[in-house]
Amino acid sequence: MSARRERTQLLTEVAQAYYEQGRTQEQIARELNVSRSRVSHYLAEARQMGIVQIRVVDPRERVTSVEDRLRQHFPHLKEVRVVPLFGGGPEVARRLIGRAAAEVLRDAVLPGQWVCLGCGRTLREMVQALHPRPVEHVTLVQAMGSIGHEALEIDFGELVRDAGRAFGARVYTIPAPAILGAGSAALLSAANPPIAEALKLARSADIYMVGLGSMESDLLYARAGLILECEMQMLQELPVVGDICGRFFDLHGRSHPSPFEERVMGIELDDLKRAVLSIGVAGGPDKVAPLLGALRGRYINGLVTDEQTARALFRLDEETS
Description:
Blueprint: H1 3-20, H2 25-32, H3 36-48, H4 64-73, E1 79-83, H5 89-108, E2 114-117, H6 121-129, E3 139-142, H7 149-152, H8 156-167, E4 170-172, H9 185-191, H10 193-202, E5 207-210, E6 213-214, H11 220-223, H12 229-237, E7 242-244, E8 247-249, E9 255-256, H13 269-274, E10 277-281, H14 288-296, E11 302-306, H15 307-320
Parallel strand pairs: 1-11, 2-3, 2-5, 3-4, 5-10, 10-11
Antiparallel strand pairs: 6-7, 7-8, 8-9
């Protein structure tokens, strides 16, 4: 390899480590065994060479050409929002998608509606971006029981309560684990009226805002200790790509009962298909396959994502159709 190509490769790797992987200049300097000032010089040179290109993104900006293409590609979509994303890693993506999802939810909620919120880090960003906008007689309800703070450091019940305060809404939580350790969700619900009432509301909501789990990266139920290792192994043997609130499906949108299906305390995929709006809120390379499966299965008729994820959706759909 020529000295010029070696230099270009070095600058590219340093820029990727800093801008995309979120490592500090000091960390990079230690890895390369150079001074921090040398790393700063590398980054400046990378900008001069055009390896790094700075783009200022207005959070209110939309990629309307990609939104139009998504509507043409998936005609059942009622609501589409695509935010521009040039880089910055998953935290930046979640923040931008969450802000856009907050705008979509604010515009969608009408007086008297029931709104059901799923869980996840992107939905947490959405709730944090909500500004107070009281709407008369709105009810917010939790989509599934709690996973526990250990998994994502998110209290799913508190997420719904925070959103409820923004809308001045009545709030229902599901005071139970997302996946029971034993027994069935149906029996527990029948024996506990507060759980039964919340679950009934969740399963008949007008609007759903849900995150999507990925078999590539999330595995939250195992990390939180809600399922056994043998059940995780059985799940990984199924042809599934992701889940919505513990209900799993494959790349073609076909649902697949998990080994713990009867213990899941929450909404079902058919509930999403009956709703006026069921909006998937997700982005990133690991969410492409779950989003495509959810779109093909028509579990979501709305989508809030980023430009890179949307373009990857088109590619995967063409490769696997």
